[in-house]
Amino acid sequence: FLRKLRLGKHVKVVQHGHFKSVNNKFNPIQGITTDAVFLANENTSTSLEEIEFGFQVWQKNMDSLVGYQPYSHKTIGKKNYQFFSSSYAGSYSMVSSNAMFMKSDFLHAYSCLLSEQVHHFVDQHPECADIAINMLVSGMTGVAPVLVDGFSLPNTNAPLLGSQCIEGLVRFFNGQNTLVFNNQIIKGIV
């Protein structure tokens, strides 16, 4: 399956280690030599063409997370947030890590630069991992994620949990919600 990719790069599948933490998904592995990594859950099923197209989109948006499933939020008052496990009013502010391209350097930033408080919070609330990586990358770059129209993924975050995740994580980002909205959906030509 992976040998047929026409990306011109070596593809290596990395399994989770023995220590179970959702944060492990974003650990940089020794020997990464590529500019990008593709993260996928074990239940993600897609075609080679969809992966190749997503990579092409990422090459044009290297400071963004590029994914296939949007999440969104809206602010209610000063410190409350409503989370949506799809786009809201035609825009989105996050993409799922169930299938996502990202700059390899963001793995280092998540694992080594993000505060231990965030790692502990995500260990206690595993459903918050996607929101944490989106907040980190948007906060570092000021750039919104990019949504690729492609395969559908199972929804994993309940709206109430997502809302609580944003509220909890904002505390660790100096009280700032760093998420950036985008309304573009990149579609491939069939």
From TrEMBL:
Residues 14-148 form the Glycosyl transferase domain. The keyword Membrane applies. InterPro entries: Exostosin (IPR004263), GT64_dom (IPR015338), Nucleotide-diphossugar_trans (IPR029044). Coiled coil: none annotated. Pfam families: Glyco_transf_64. One of its GO terms (molecular function) is glycosyltransferase activity. Keywords: Disulfide bond, Membrane, Transferase. It comes from the Eukaryota. One of its GO terms (cellular component) is membrane. It is found in: Membrane. PANTHER family: ACETYLGLUCOSAMINYLTRANSFERASE (PTHR48261). This is Glycosyl transferase 64 domain-containing protein.
